[in-house]
Amino acid sequence: MQVNERINDRTSTTSTRTVENNYPVWVGGGSTTTTRTDVARVQAACTDAGISWSKQAATMTQRWLAEGFAVEVLINYAIEETALAPYPSFRYVAAIMRRLREEGLYTMRDVTRSEMQRAARRGESAF
Predict the structure, then answer these.
(1) Tens digits of residue pLDDT in 13-29
(2) How far apart are alpha carbons 30 and 2 in whole angstroms?
(3) Cα distance between residue 120 and residue 126, in whole Å
(4) Positive or negative CA dihedral for 12, 33, 108, 86?
(5) Is the pTM of this model over 0.90?
(6) Which of 102, 92, 40 lies closest to 65 in space, CA to CA?
């Protein structure tokens, strides 16, 4: 079964959300397009990092991608940072994503620039 509905995303552009077999697939709007492949990539990265995956994790991932976060932000920043924690969990990933949303950091370019500025304030190297 396929259902289409129009939504407005954070950039005030119109997107289409298609639901196929109870699995949302977001098309248009934001800086990225959410597909099953993107969610599968995030799931694989979590598994590789020892972070447990659940239905809730899939739902949150779909939401973040639909909000315009680049999939690389999840994989190359949030999940990698979480993997360094003593007890990696998806809650830690979620906390990082909340902070990124609050700071308006939706792309790896945004994240890298922010990390470099933060490191400069502390007098350290960013990476």
Answers:
(1) 334 444 444 444 444 44
(2) 22
(3) 8
(4) positive
(5) no
(6) 40
